[in-house]
Amino acid sequence: MQSGGTPELAVDDTVPKLRGCFWMGEHRSVRITPLLLVLLATTLSPVVDAAPKWAIVIHGGAGVIERKELTAEQEAAYRAALTRAIGAGSDVLGKGGTALDAVEATIVLMEDDPLFNAGRGAVFTAEGRNELDASIMDGRTLSAGAVAGVTRTRHPISLARRVMEKSPHVMLVGAGADTYSREQGLEQVAPGWFYTEHRWESLEKTLKEKGLPIPAKPAGITSDPAKDVVHDEGKRGTVGVVALDANGNLAAGTSTGGMTAKRWGRVGDSPIIGAGTYAANSSCAVSGTGTGEYFIRLTVAREICALVEYQHMSLQAAADEVIHERLTALGGDGGIIAITPDGTMAWSFNSVGMYRARAADGQAVQVAIYKDER
Fold it and tell me: What is the pTM of this model?
């Protein structure tokens, strides 16, 4: 005991001296061992949620998507489609698949869904064609592949990946991309495969407003199972996926039909690496949707990752800075989804709504459409 009656705890030489006492019926000296300190620290430390082993975020386009614009049937159809898509990617990741595999598998499903402006269900050019764009990027190696203006490949995202993995190039366009697709043995379809009545009606309306002639319908039109539930989200329709796999690798992918009644071979941001798609394990993975000309000018996807990596901003803060400040100031609209190597997920959009969903290991699936949803 020290003078004054305060007990002093005897400790091992390997542990710094601590002053105070434990009350154990009476004041007495207690020997604190390293093991006991570890146990105390473990008991008293706050519980911190572990980072998920895998995570995935998807979008189905941003635009004029308000509650009053969608019927109950339409809303249910889109929520079901988003749930199926996020489920497909989650299944790949949950079984130990790569982020690239999850991105491709999810977008393939969305390209086949006529509800979305990608693959089957894509909008038409002024000439009555479906010219499809897609890109994919590997966050581990910074490898990337992209295609623009393809017309016969059922799954443009798969062609973009084939460009990344099997060619010395990053981007192929038009007839050359279609030729490469055939040479690679990817599934080819007649132009009518991509046809949906709702998108054609939107084309006719836009062409009439612009005083342009209405072209003949494409050959090989099949059925249109989603005719009564497709919603026209405006000029911002796209699908995209970002994913983190169990090995800590990121990937991003985006696919679109572009803008209704586009002319002169117009290409937006979706196949542009750094604008509509970007992934790097050192920062984040991003997929965008919106008016592509603005996303290209701001290199939206890469800019968000740069703010995370070099300015040490949180993912949500970086996304909001680019979308709500820079994009808005320039006059652009749209949104993004993003993910970091620690499993942090984010989305940000300045449009009225965005079809979106996210899921992660050990977390419930979240599906949302409107701006007032979390």
Answer: 0.85
